[in-house]
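Re: the request from the purification team.
They wanted to know what the chain is likely to look like in 3D before they choose a buffer screen. I agreed to run a prediction and write the result into the notebook, where they can find it.
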Amino acid sequence: MPLLTVADVLRLPVIVAGRPRVMAGEGQLARAVRWVHVTELLDPASFLEGGELVLTTGMPQPNDPSRLRGYADQLADIGAAGLVVELGRRYQQVPPELVAACRARDLPLIVLSRGIRFIEVTQTVHALILDAQGELLRRSQQVHEIFTALTLRNADPEELVRTAADLMGRPVVLENLLHHAVVSRTAGGTAGQVLEAWARRSRATPTPDTTAVSGPEDWLVAPVEHNGRRWGRLVAVPDAAATAADPEHTMILERAATALTLARLTGHAQWDRQAHTCALRELLRWSYRGRTEARIRIEALGIPVVGHRLIALAIGHHGATADKTGLDDRLADALRDSGIRALVGRLSPDRTGVLLALARASAWQPVVERVSRLTEETLGTAAVVAVGPGVTEIDQVARAFREAEEVVDAIGPGTPHRPFHVPSDIGLPELLYALRDDIRVQKYVEHQLGRLMSTTSGTPAIC
């Protein structure tokens, strides 16, 4: 629920009756009003905590311009929401020195040309504030129940992030310490709008100790931890209207960050692998509006696209008897430690996909040979590593993976063992092996060999 702002207060009938005029701080009317404080003291800051809208008749204000500047400085320093001065008792018009002082500090200064009852203002505003706080408590309980239910049924990070974004009505991104956007939900925007140059923008946004607005783009940031150490953070990006984050947004993001922390403790530890798997599958089925959106999404995971050659590897391990669960992590760790940018994820239960992003001038064979060695060390020689054609455009990756997977399908038991295979390795025997389940091939075999099979079994062949 949005906070009550200075602009909201100025629209209240009790204030409108005083014919308010904004004399300074016109750009700060979106400041939240935490309370209303009526005072005639020369040093009101000692009774304020910040966020108060100060009402005064100006009776004790000195004629000394320097003291008027000091009065405005006190309010600005303490973080007052604004100053409302009623004319008619002490002043017939607001002192220019006070106007100048408030403008210098960008402090909202509102002048009332008609007298009003301050008690009615405080009663009205305080009632609205208390109502908003009560609504926030009720909303907090609802959000708590939502994330508790998700945690109890072991919801994955994608669902937790999606729920946070839907509740807030703005994009939410889960990133790791490398500033890779592991999970993103672009409610209220597109992936291109939200994730463009993500790593650079993220590095410009410090991580606060608690959930708070941070950085030049006013991101709302909540830390995400694992075993007492910071793993990454959850970021809510301002929506298209650039509305400021309010207490409800903060509460929702905190609940989501807590749920994500618990999710890591209860088994959802392979978030990076899940993110890579999702990205690879989205590329294969092309779940993007165009090249730009796909490039931005992949680059947000730390994989450069522009100026790089993209090499698709399909690793088939259907016949492998060794434990396959550690292969993806081992490949990802080895490539990362070598400084090679790559997506590594599971395309299917018996197939791993690797997308290498290599500088165009660099050789791809040594990298693929290393992947092959690690695969053989992990799964044995039954695993098959196939390489698709190198491409330079992100929308060509799906075709490259399809060709690599066709090679995997064609490698049969009689194919000579090699560290890796490419499409040109496929001869007639491999082609027939790949087409072994095709109904047309089966009919051909039956028609051509049926007589021989019948004779061999002792049954006379039909002439």
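For the purification team: The chain has a mean pLDDT of 86.
Please add any questions underneath this entry.
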